[in-house]
Write a structure and sequence with these properties.
Blueprint lengths: L1 E2 L11 H15 L18 H24 L2 E2 L4 E8 L1 E7 L13 H15 L4 E7 L3 E8 L2 H10 L11 H12 L7 E7 L10 H10 L3 E7 L4 E8 L5 E7 L4 H11 L3 E4 L2 H11 L5 E8 L7 H19 L7
């Protein structure tokens, strides 16, 4: 058991003046008589009421003690805990341009990437992981955290249409760098998934890669898309729904390879969901370093036992004073 206000235990010092006062009071009110001999009363036993009077005072002290414990707020052991664990800093940068709805993955590239990313997050016990999405612009979906529930909820809830369409690989990488650079782990890695080539944005991909290199951040790039052609969105029909047709898969593998090589990472090509899962399993073997992480555990007050004891002692005091220890005027 822990206490929210342990400093209030100093209130137990009130027992000292109370005991002194009680001893003084007893000595003052006890009657005395002088006699030449005690032979006539030496066999008399002390009445149980004398001892009960002392017991009544003890009951009152116990009641005061229970009240002090309640004021100290006894609680369950739930709390913030800081522990040192093996982990790394990771940011997942996910392309969410319209082409990620191509049907060469099941059910499409974007959904497959979300599923595999969720499995990857679930398997990383103690890592600080952040989420960045990019299309024609980039956006931090979730800053780095060790809360897997928040990460999984963010991945599952993100939908297409959040950002202006396009493929700003450089902006997505730059935003990921800004998120991960403040991390405390020595090992920092960005996993960038895209199915196209950079066609918009303010920062060139290789410029962002140079920044990552200077910061000691590894970038693992993944090109998503089958070989040949894939059934991909080509427009919107009269009813506002996407129209699909077969489009040649074009991934700027040269740029993605250069980013990975410059930063000490690695480039992967995922042609289906199974190969994407294999890639994430390989990345899952990233080096780990010591991390100090804080976890919150729910804390609840646990004073009911002491409250019932307080009521019991007060009730016992009332019963004794109104029955066997009743004073007669």
């Amino acid at each position: 058991m822990e206490f929210a206000r342990p400093h209030l235990f100093w209130l137990f010092l009130i027992y000292i003046p109370l005991i002194f006062w009680y001893v003084y009071k007893i000595r003052k009110i006890d009657p005395t008589i002088q006699a030449s001999t005690l032979d006539a009363v030496k066999n008399f036993r002390t009445s149980y009421r004398v001892w009960l009077r002392h017991g009544l005072f003890a009951v009152r002290l116990l009641a005061i003690g229970c009240l002090i414990v309640i004021l100290c707020r006894p609680q369950t052991s739930n709390k913030w805990e800081t522990s040192s664990v093996e982990g790394t800093d990771i940011v997942i940068a996910l392309d969410m341009s319209t082409s990620m709805l191509a049907k060469d993955f099941t059910p499409d590239r974007f959904a497959a990437a979300k599923d595999v990313a969720s499995e990857f997050i679930s398997g990383r016990e103690s890592d600080n992981i952040g989420l960045v999405v990019f299309a024609g612009e980039s956006f931090t979906l979730l800053p780095m955290t060790t809360d897997k529930s928040s990460l999984l909820n963010a991945v599952s809830s993100v939908e297409m249409g959040l950002l202006e369409d396009g493929t700003a690989i450089g902006d997505g990488l730059a935003t990921s760098i800004n998120r991960i650079v403040e991390g405390k782990a020595k090992s920092k890695s960005i996993i960038l998934l895209t199915d196209g080539s950079n066609n918009t944005g303010l920062i060139a991909p290789l410029t962002a890669a140079e920044i990552a290199k200077d910061k000691g951040i590894k970038v693992y790039t993944i090109g998503i898309g089958s070989n040949g052609s894939a059934l991909s969105p080509v427009g919107i029909n009269y009813y506002g729904k996407l129209e699909y047709d077969y489009v040649k898969v074009t991934i700027d593998e040269q740029t993605l390879q250069s980013i990975a090589r410059m930063t000490g990472g690695k480039y992967y090509r995922a042609t289906d969901k199974n190969s994407l899962e294999g890639i994430f399993k390989e990345i899952d073997a990233l080096e780990k370093t010591k991390l100090d992480i804080s976890r919150y555990h729910n804390t609840e007050d646990d004073y009911m036992l002491w409250a019932w004891l307080l009521l019991a002692f007060v009730g016992l005091d009332i019963v004794l004073r109104t029955t066997v220890m009743r004073n007669i005027p």
